[in-house]
Every structure is written in structure tokens, then in C-alpha cells.
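C-alpha cells in:
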């Protein structure tokens, strides 16, 4: 599977772009799903800052695969959508500067148990987002996320069917945290999945390195590859116990499980190594 293009949320190694570049280089990655840059969310940086980041990535031989944006990660209730749509337009401008052809997005937080009640509003607002991206050369990629309208496989499928221009991002750990069987989800959605988030979890929802949880990540990665998929994005989300000694009180020892790491760099490297072993 050496044809895979492997990207990552390198802001989990460091908030600083220079250290993100170092983390990607030492792990032999192709580039970024860019989310946090020098203390700012990617949706909030200026065009000039995006040009600076692009120069650094070009010099390092790295690319931006996707904008790891927070677009759509707001409540469906309220009147803030017009401003949010303007934020999407700004992120699309940044994507053009950074050379990103994909933009990760969500389908709005909905009150628990009221997805059906808000379906019409969700569809309307997602439709406006699709309209805003049309002609930009950037594909909107919907990620399953706990608590949003498209958190379960059937509602992800509904969105992808209603909007053929949308693509899917498949995150196994997020499905586990929602109580969704990942194999059922994969079989329903795989024909529309643009790329995978490499993230696994235990039955209790704790995120662990790929292949160490119950997300069927190994099978999904293999099946994705066998059906022509070539892009994956590592999203570690692993526990970091930096400064652990400061958390310990006299007479108490904090037990660290095998999937907890002493630093952000160590957690990032462990997530990358788990994928490499799997491949």
C-alpha cells in the first residue's frame, strides 16, 4: 500500500507550523489536514498568513490535502448562520492560497433526540454551503461527528444522497462514540467516502492507536484501498500526560495506561507508527 498518500492533523504534535512540518517530515508524511496554525484556527488566519504557511510547506516538499475547518460545527438553533457562511467563503479563499482541494465540514449540532425536527433546516443550510463552494474547485467533505445531524450512518447517507457534490470523511472513532457499528456504517457509506480519518477507539469511546480499538480500522483501510481510495488523514486524539508529576499528590500515584503518552510529539508519532504497522 505504498501508493497511499498520508496526511495528518499535525497541530496535535505542535501548535506551531514549523514544528508541525518537523513532525510530518520525521514521520514521512505527505502533508497536512490543516486545522491550527500558530495559535489560530485555520478559519481565522489571514490570506497573508496563508501565503506564509504555503511558502514554508512548499520549501519542505509538503502539501495541504484538506482544510480541517470547523465549518458546520455550530448549533442549528440561533441566527448565526449568515456569518458562518461568510466564514466558509473565507476558508475557501484560504484553500485556494494553500492549494487544498478538500474542505472538511459538519452538519450542525442538533438538540439530542430532535434530528428529525431539524432536518429541514439542516438540509437548507448544508445546501447553502454547497452553493457557496460551487465553482471553487474545493470539495466539501462531510465528517461524522458526535452530536451533529450527520452523526449516525443513516443520516450521513441521507446528506450524501441529497447533495451529490458532497463527499464523505469516514471517522471510525467518532462512530464508536455514537454507538454506531463501524462495519454497518462503512458498507453503507463507502462508495461516497473521499478519505479516511485514521482514528480508533475502545468500546467506552477512549481513542487509541489504529488497530488497537473496535473500529475495524484495518479492514476499512484495506477495503478503501481495494476500491481505489488512496488518501488517509491521521487524527491522533491520544491521551497526553505531559507534566504528569505535577498531577500526582503525595501518597497517590496516577496510573498511565499503555495508550497515554508523555508529550504531544510522542502521541503524534505513536499514531503515525500504528498506521505504518497496519499498512
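Residues out:
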Amino acid at each position: 500500500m505504498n501508493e497511499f498518500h498520508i496526511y495528518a492533523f499535525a497541530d496535535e504534535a505542535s501548535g506551531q507550523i514549523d514544528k508541525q512540518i518537523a513532525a510530518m517530515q520525521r514521520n514521512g508524511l505527505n502533508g497536512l489536514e490543516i486545522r491550527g496554525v500558530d495559535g489560530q484556527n485555520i478559519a481565522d488566519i489571514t490570506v497573508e498568513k496563508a501565503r506564509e504557511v504555503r511558502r514554508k510547506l512548499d520549501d519542505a516538499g509538503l502539501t495541504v490535502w484538506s482544510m480541517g475547518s470547523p465549518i458546520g460545527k455550530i448549533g442549528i438553533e440561533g441566527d448565526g448562520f449568515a456569518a458562518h457562511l461568510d466564514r466558509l467563503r473565507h476558508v475557501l479563499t484560504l484553500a485556494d492560497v494553500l492549494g487544498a482541494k478538500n474542505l472538511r465540514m459538519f452538519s450542525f449540532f442538533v438538540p439530542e433526540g430532535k434530528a428529525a425536527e431539524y432536518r429541514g433546516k439542516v438540509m437548507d443550510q448544508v445546501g447553502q454551503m454547497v452553493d457557496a463552494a460551487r465553482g471553487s474547485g474545493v470539495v466539501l467533505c462531510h465528517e461524522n461527528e458526535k452530536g451533529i445531524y450527520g452523526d449516525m450512518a443513516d443520516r450521513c447517507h441521507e446528506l450524501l444522497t441529497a447533495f451529490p457534490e458532497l463527499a464523505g470523511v469516514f471517522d471510525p472513532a467518532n462512530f464508536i462514540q455514537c454507538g454506531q457499528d463501524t462495519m454497518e456504517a462503512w458498507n453503507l457509506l463507502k462508495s461516497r467516502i473521499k478519505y479516511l480519518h485514521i482514528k480508533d477507539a475502545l468500546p467506552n469511546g477512549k481513542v487509541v492507536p489504529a488497530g488497537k480499538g473496535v473500529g475495524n480500522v484495518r479492514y476499512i483501510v484495506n477495503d478503501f484501498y481495494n476500491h481505489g481510495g488512496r488518501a488517509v488523514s491521521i487524527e491522533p486524539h491520544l491521551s497526553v500526560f505531559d507534566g504528569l508529576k505535577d498531577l500526582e499528590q503525595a501518597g497517590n500515584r496516577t496510573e498511565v495506561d499503555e495508550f497515554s503518552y508523555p508529550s504531544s510529539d510522542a502521541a503524534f508519532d505513536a499514531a503515525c507508527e500504528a498506521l505504518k504497522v497496519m499498512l
